[in-house]
Specification:
The structure holds two protein chains of two kinds. By secondary structure, chain A is an alpha/beta fold. Chain A has two domains: 182 residues, Rossmann fold (3-Layer(aba) Sandwich); 129 residues, Rossmann fold, CATH 3.40.50. Helix content of chain A is 38%, strand content 21%. Chain A contains eleven helices and 14 strands. In chain A, helix 7 links the parallel strand 10 and strand 11. In chain A, helix 7 crosses helix 11 and helix 8 crosses helix 9. In chain A, 58% of the residues are buried. By secondary structure, chain B is α/β, with parallel strands linked by helices. Chain B has one domain: Thiamin diphosphate (ThDP)-binding fold, Pyr/PP domains (Rossmann fold, 3-Layer(aba) Sandwich). In chain B, 39% of the residues lie in helices and 11% in strands. Chain B is built from ten helices and eight strands. Chain B has a six-stranded parallel sheet with strand order 2-1-3-4-8-7, sandwiched between helices. Chain B has a two-stranded antiparallel ribbon with strand order 5-6. The chains are: A alpha/beta, B alpha/beta. At the A-B interface, helix 3 and helix 4 of A face strand 2, helix 5 and helix 6 of B.
Chain lengths: 325, 340
């Protein structure tokens, strides 16, 4: 085990897969010589050369289109979209083309590619560089959607995404890039579609993703220590495929479901999980499902405003104390 | 032709071999007869939805189809029946797909606008304007990276030149020196609107080529020989590492934009003028001038029609898709599961 930052784990995961498979190539804006605007891909061009690690013009449609064309003809590209907000300028490629290619061609077309992107708030970048858009991807049939919370998961899930034969959208939470954690040495591959139970409790089950996992853990600590409320915390890790078995069984054990989402209220992934739990686990519930999200507004920039928009550990504590008894 | 070709204005026929010429005619016949059949099947309500016919534009698909290597990649738009057939895709598979039958190239999941036949290098028909230009660049990048000397050919209409993906793909392909040939089929209309009324330059593709450091190439898209020669040059350049080519082929759509469009916005006489330059009879005349006898031509025509009849019968006899297919082939494991 070595201690790596979340950003170093990105480079480690890509390097591991490029080392293993010559067909893995990597492209994006400022990713090669600059090492990425978040410095998450430093060292790759030195190690793998300019034919496999390529700087692109500010042309998101060309980047994603090129990745698609390469994937359907035998390569396994990793494309970076610098900020997930920029998905909006290449959404045709992602939602209309990549996601539908295999189904529409009745299985003729293979699409083994990964689109990595910096997602989410907490960096004071304002509403066009801070959105949490994993639910955009989740609602399109044909896309797998992954969002790690820890450096080890970054490396292991990124490797799994590259090896996956289907398109994977890989959301890195940009406020976590400097987070440190133990990462297994050597070849490390995780599995898509598996949630992780990070903490066991008896009063409620908090289901969270990416940065919200850390806030849920912090809140659970405070609730236990100061208020005698004991919480299970589940890190969803992968929205598609979704590990409903783990979620349903953990909700059944505590009788309460709380989802903590960074995205705005409407159609957030928590609503889908709430719906599944209501359908399949209703008689195990001891009270209403609680969804904690940002208000249904664009994310403001000023630190005070952003901090009060995104769910904080304090807000999770406050809401659970008010609603759980 | 309403526009003067700036390059290859003189007929390049002498450079095309006699066997190639017969192949170009055979292919144009099949594309013409099959497309006409698609129209008839529409009128019989055996084809539903929409369809965008290539009637009048066959020389472009045929010229490239004959010039391309079997392992080259084709990318087409929703007006892609001819380009798909020109790579050797099954005619039964094409008509079957249009008719929503099990024998269709896509088993009924794609329809007219998405014809694909990966085994024949047809890497998809794309129904969002411009999307397939960057995708073709990606296939070309893959060929370049793998060192296979394959090329990608991407067909699109004049209207595509005004969308962002066109410009992103051109710049990207030139910077990366990709083996890709972009072919703008300028049929004078962007759907229902004259392209000249919505475009800043006379030649929507060729006049923009210089912005990407490419030569301006306009070819007579109704002359299969001219297209074949231009295609051969561009493909050779791509395979030699010379990078992309942008070709504007002047042509004309005999029918409207789609099934719903009778094409009444066209000025009187325009269609008639272009029908006089219909690529199929035009090419027949050229073969006669080159000494091909009437009997040979007639036998080719009968053979092409026979193929269309057989494909039509096959498609009509094919079963409908199974409703079980709805929940198949979203993922590589053949299934559609999004949860455990």
């Amino acid at each position: 085990m070595a201690e790596l930052t979340y950003r170093d784990a990105v480079a480690a995961g890509i390097a591991q897969e490029m080392e293993r498979d010559q067909n893995v190539v990597f492209l994006g804006e400022d990713v090669a010589h600059a090492g990425g605007v978040f410095k998450a891909t430093v060292g790759l061009i030195e190690r793998f050369g300019p034919l496999r690690v390529r700087d692109c013009p500010i042309s998101e449609q060309a980047i994603i289109g090129a990745a698609m064309g390469a994937a359907m003809t035998g390569l396994r590209p990793i494309a970076e979209i610098m900020f997930s907000d920029f998905f909006a300028v290449c959404w045709d490629m992602i939602a209309n083309e990549i996601a539908k290619a295999r189904y529409m061609t009745n299985g003729q077309m293979a699409m083994p590619l990964v689109i990595r992107t910096a997602n989410g708030g907490g960096s004071r970048f304002g509403a066009q560089h801070s959105q949490s858009v994993e639910n955009w991807a989740m609602m399109i049939p044909g896309l797998k959607v992954v969002a790690p919370a820890f450096p080890a998961d970054v490396k292991g899930l990124l490797a799994a995404a590259v090896r996956d034969p289907d398109p994977v959208i890989f959301f890195e939470q940009k406020s976590l890039y400097s987070l440190k954690g133990e990462v297994p040495d050597g070849e490390y591959v995780d599995e898509l579609g598996k949630a992780k139970v990070l903490r066991h409790g008896k009063d409620c089950t908090i289901v969270a993703l990416a940065a919200m996992v850390h806030r849920a853990l912090e809140a659970a600590e405070v609730l236990e220590r100061e208020h005698g409320i004991s919480c299970t915390v589940v890190d969803v890790r992968s929205l598609v495929p979704l590990d409903t078995q783990t979620i349903l069984s953990e909700v059944a054990k505590t009788g309460r479901l709380v989802t903590v989402e960074e995205n705005p209220r409407l159609c957030g992934w928590g609503a889908e999980i709430a719906s599944i739990v209501a359908d399949e686990c209703f008689w195990e519930l001891d009270g209403p499902i609680i969804r904690i999200t940002t208000p249904h507004v664009p994310l403001p920039s000023a630190d005070l405003l952003e901090d009060h928009t995104m769910p904080s550990a304090e807000r999770i504590v406050r809401e659970l104390r008010a609603k759980l008894d | 032709m309403s526009t003067t070709a700036r390059k290859n204005a003189a007929t390049p026929a002498p450079e095309v071999g006699s066997e190639t010429r017969l192949e170009l005619y055979r292919l144009q016949l099949e594309l013409r007869y099959c497309e006409k059949r698609a129209y008839d099947l529409f009128l019989q309500n055996l084809i539903k939805g929409t369809s965008h016919l290539s009637l009048g534009q066959e020389a472009i698909a045929a010229g490239f189809g004959v010039a391309m290597r079997p392992d080259d990649y084709t990318f087409c738009t929703y007006r892609g029946h001819a380009h798909t057939l020109a790579r050797g895709a099954s005619m039964t598979g094409v008509l079957g797909e249009l008719m929503g039958r099990q024998c269709g190239l896509l088993g009924g999941k794609g329809g007219s606008m998405h014809l694909t036949d990966v085994a024949h290098g047809v890497m998809g028909s794309y129904a969002i304007i411009g999307a397939h230009l960057p995708i073709a660049a990606g296939a070309a990048w893959s060929a370049q990276y793998r060192g296979t000397q394959q090329a990608a050919v991407c067909f699109f209409g004049d209207g595509t030149t005004n969308i962002g993906a066109f410009h992103e793909a051109l710049n990207f392909s030139v910077v990366w020196k990709l083996p890709v040939v972009y072919v703008c089929e300028n049929n004078l209309y962007m759907e229902y609107t004259p392209i000249s009324s919505v475009t800043a330059v006379e030649h929507p593709a060729a006049d923009r080529a210089s912005a990407y450091g490419l030569p301006s190439i306009v070819v007579d898209g109704n002359d299969a020989d001219a297209v074949y020669l231009e295609a051969s040059r561009a493909l050779a350049k791509a395979r030699a590492g010379g990078g992309p080519t942008l070709i504007e082929a002047m042509t004309y759509r005999h029918s409207g934009h789609s099934r719903a469009d009778p094409g009444k916005y066209r000025p009187p006489g325009e269609l008639d003028a272009w029908l006089k330059r219909d690529p199929v009879p035009f090419y027949r005349q050229r073969l006669i001038e080159h000494g091909v006898d009437e009997r040979t031509l007639k036998s080719m025509e009968d053979e092409a029609m026979g193929k269309v009849e057989q494909a039509t019968a096959n498609a009509k006899a094919s079963a409908l898709p199974s409703v079980d297919d709805i929940e198949k082939n979203l993922w590589s494991d053949g299934g559609v599961a999004w949860r455990n």
